[in-house]
Amino acid sequence: MLRIALALTIATALFAAEAHAADIGQVKVSKGTVTIDRSGQSMPADTGTRLQTADVVKTGSDGSVGITMTDNSLLSAGPNSVLALDRYDFDSTTNEGKFDASLRRGTLAVVSGRLAKQSPDAMTLHTPSAILGVRGTEFVVSVQ
Amino acid sequence: MSRTPKWHVFLVCLLAGCTFTSERIVLLPEQDGRPTAVVVKQGAHDVVLDRPYAATELTAADPWTYRASAAEVTATFGDALAAQPTRAAAFTLYFVEGSDELTEESKRVLETVFADLKGRKVADVLVVGHTDTVGTDPFNDALALQRAEAIRRALIQRGVAPGDVTAVGRGKRELLVQTPDGVAEPRNRRVEIVVR
């Protein structure tokens, strides 16, 4: 009985996760080796690939990648980069929500979008040693 | 909180030669020249970058600020900047009253949407339909969606993949020009297109 209950709980949790796996952005530019780590699996990130919350985008020594999020933010990374899309909620009607990303390694160029424009606290970029509050802007970050 | 002493981390670092990562942040000039800023928080330190090319370098010691050059940005971030996607573009099309037929002027604007789409390798299009305040909510919700769907069909006819265009209707809830109920306002009879 307990096992059935447990199996049901897990099935429900899996279904819920599936239902919430909404597109948050898209790979627009992909050069050289670019992969996405999603749910413990690594997959190629070709041009056109749709992104989900918690995806980790990685570029090889010959790679670079350009991403457009649904709030029109642009994130693009150079070679040997690791970028995690930790959290993303965006209400396209009110422009409210939250976007947290982490640059663990490499180089990143950012053009913030509608989230940061709506609220100065909506977009945060983490590096290994700092937290960047984005007040609606264009900037570059390197972690080496 | 972990109670494990951290001294062993230092010992490992001493033996293996750990290096603190070097991190740099540079504010770039905004395309439309609006004032912007990035606030960098490292532990107890806050650094505000609010001028073009204002930069900070974070090391194990305190963050230090300096003015970067365009050459430095290109040298370090050239590949990342070259991979930057085309910026999103927004278009507004207007309709003949009570219908999903575009005004003559907007038919020409629709051609510029097609031209924009041609310049993008992969496009992602959102079409949001709106109405003026003449009529009931159910009528306007249906008309707004009908307008968005008409534009979606036109885009698909011109080669956009059906999976890349989303059409939604907002009825009379998001007026461009605020009017009382029951007012025929041409500027509210529209679809807004975002091309990403």
Structure characterization notes:
The complex is a heterodimer of chains A (144) and B (196). In chain A, strands 1, 2, 3, 4, 5, 6, 7, 8, 9, 10, 11 and 12 form a 12-stranded mixed β-sheet that branches. Chain A starts with a helix and ends with a strand. Helix content of chain A is 17%, strand content 49%. Chain A has 144 residues and is α+β, with helices and mostly antiparallel strands. The longest helix of chain A has 19 residues, at 2-20. By secondary structure, chain B is of the alpha+beta class. Chain B is elongated. Chain B starts with 6 loop residues before the first helix and ends with a strand. Chains A and B meet through strand 1, strand 6, strand 7, strand 9 and strand 11 of A and strand 1, strand 2 and helix 2 of B. Strand 12 (138-143) of chain A pairs antiparallel with strand 1 (23-27) of chain B.
Keywords:
heterodimer; A: 144 residues; alpha+beta; twelve-stranded mixed sheet; B: 196 residues; four-stranded mixed sheet; three-stranded antiparallel sheet; 30% helix; elongated; disordered N terminus
In short:
The complex is a heterodimer of chains A (144) and B (196). Chain A is an alpha+beta fold and 144 residues long.
Strand content of chain A: over 45%
Structural class of chain B: alpha+beta
Rg of chain A, Cα atoms, Å:
16 Å
The span between the termini of chain A is: 53 Å
Helix proportion range of chain A: 10-25%
> What proportion strand of chain B?
15-25%
Output the strand order for the largest sheet of chain B: 6-9-7-8
Number of helices of chain A: 2
